[in-house]
Amino acid sequence: MTSIEAHVQQPYKYGFVTDIESEVVPAGLNEDVIRLISDKKGEPEWMLDWRLKAYRNWLKMSEPHWPNVKYGPIDYQAISYYAAPKKLPKLDSLDQVDPKLVATFEKLGIPIEEQKRLTGVAVDAVFDSVSVATTFQAELAKYGVIFCPISQAIREHGDLVQKYLSTVVPINDNFFAALNSAVFTDGSFVYVPKGVRCPLELSTYFRINASSTGQFERTLIIADEGSYVSYLEGCSAPMRDEHQLHAAVVELVAHDRATIKYSTIQNWYPGDEEGKGGIYNFVTKRGKCAGANSKISWTQVETGSAITWKYPGCILQGDNSIGEFYSVAVTSHKQQADTGTKMIHLGKNTRSTIVSKGISAGRGQNTYRGLVKIMKGAEGARNYSQCDSMLIGDKCGAHTFPYIDVRNSTAIMEHEASTSKIGEDQIFYLRQRGLSSEDAVSMIVNGFCKEVFKELPMEFAVEATRLLGISLEGSVG
Amino acid sequence: MGRGKGDGGRVLLEVKGLRVSVAGNEILKGVDLTIRDGEVHAIMGPNGSGKSTLAQVLAGHPAYSVLAGTATYEGKDLLDMKPEERARAGVFLAFQYPVEIRGITNSYFLRAALNALRRERGEPELDPIDFLQFLEQKLKAIGWDDSMLNRPVNEGFSGGEKKRNEILQLAVLEPRLAILDETDSGLDIDALKTVAETVNKLRGPDRAFLIVTHYQRLLNYITPDVVHVLADGRIVKSGGPELAHELEAKGYDWLRDAAMVS
Description:
Largest interface: A-B, 25 and 29 residues
Number of helices of chain A: 11
Strand content of chain A: 35-45%
Largest sheet of chain B: 6 strands, mixed
Number of strands of chain B: 12
Radius of gyration of chain B: 18 Å
Shape of chain A: globular
CATH topology of chain B: Rossmann fold
CATH class of chain B: Alpha Beta
Helix content of chain B: 25-40%
Strand order of the largest sheet of chain B: 6-9-10-3-11-12
Oligomer: heterodimer
Strand content of chain B: 25-35%
CATH architecture of chain B: 3-Layer(aba) Sandwich
Number of strands of chain A: 23
Structural class of chain B: alpha/beta
């Protein structure tokens, strides 16, 4: 084992299990299970109908197998679709949160207790199928900003949810989106009213704890005219031999002159060196720049999951709207990632930027898949794409599939791609200057990812840098 | 075998019977070399004689295997130290082929390296502001501008700029033993003079140099205390600066023949 290989085999740090009494619905999926979930959430009739419609659609669909990833068949009847800690706090009284839950999130670096909260960041903490705490809700309400679990939004802001839900990702968009629509349990809802610049960073932390369950979260963010919001999600799960399914749907809507900045630090359990266990992260994320001069920016740092399948995209409908996608995807051990973005240009003078950094180590397989589509009416559209791959060792792979579909001759498209290899010579050079091999790998990788990290909110850029160092411990050969 | 200028100086590096292979081929076949504090030694020799191997193995490149022999640096077993430990103890290698590090500026990199050294010496780390002041002094001392500082390490640098950047690092990191591996190759005459002048400014009683070079031209500007000729993995001749001129006039073949005979 070379010094660099030795560096990438560090254990997953968030693999602990919280011993807490949970209510877990028996495995299996049918209309009764969906009714049960809807009932547990105290949902109105329209929501249940919507779920059932999605479920009936899903039954007619088949799992997509076009991604460049390999895995055994998933038994959807072997998954439990609802798991929740038994002792849950009543709304608006965080002091009643089970101390075990508080300790769990604290261990994950997400303090939810009043006195320890992160300054400048409001957090919604989701544990298995339920939100257990949402901080700063009252503070945000003063600005008219709604930030709450989506289950609460369905009960209390039904009109808004009904108006926007599935307007960006239709229930039959794809197999996993349909499944999510049928069984989603919690997630966050954000509404920022006209002209308001959300005074806090909003953040949701997703934690899977129970075994043999799936997590199906749903997030909906609406930025009304001239508003601004920055949202960040993080996630982790215990180390288990089984694969667990995480199929989320995220929808963003930006009205005229609104900006939504959505950042993800994805650290689901990646499985062990032999590919045993780990999360299947099959996620549909899409934003709609509905209004003129609106902007949606996706930034993702993907270090976890056994398999990642996600393409956060933007529908650039409003004239002069802007879509951005900045991504770092790391695959180590036997991880597989097929990720990228979709930029659909509809409005005039719409612009999109794609910066993708794929890092493959161990026996990881990293695929960038991106679509840039310029529709007929999109006069003066522009796209800039940059896809860089870095290989660490000689047993991993990097693949790039850029699809470009231009139907308006005024479009200006730029595409750049590169592949580089981190080798002993680079590491040796830095060590010869006094840096340890860990610091050397970290410096090279962080330099490679710099254009993406600078897009993250500052607190999280530090976290991302650290996480990347851990994920790559031991992978160069 | 290395003959010092003043034999009273403290021995900084002592290499004895060093045999080294790379990818199964024995390159160094028994090298002896003694460098005392502040001395400037030049290692000359034809291509393939093992000059760069000697430089790399002293710095600890993992691709080279030591078959036999010792290297003692400041009384410690140099060959037992990790590359970063050698660097922190004051061994610096100016690379023949410096690598590029994307996205990391020269000044960030230099500060990280300097702080790694300072930590080792028990000195406080420099924050970015203190470091900039420190750097300005260093640049002033060697008469260089700051144009390379905010560029990514060696990225997009010309061959000459990369070599100059190695010398800049040398000036900032202030090693006790600086090994220059063919720093002169790929330099035009002006750059060669700049590099040589800087090296001369950095010479001092606390800093020894081991200059590996194929040509004598660098030694027109840097006068070494000792010149060694390496041929077929052994030092076949050592002498004063005049030896370099002799080699320039006569080539290496007569020495190689001598090595074969012995």
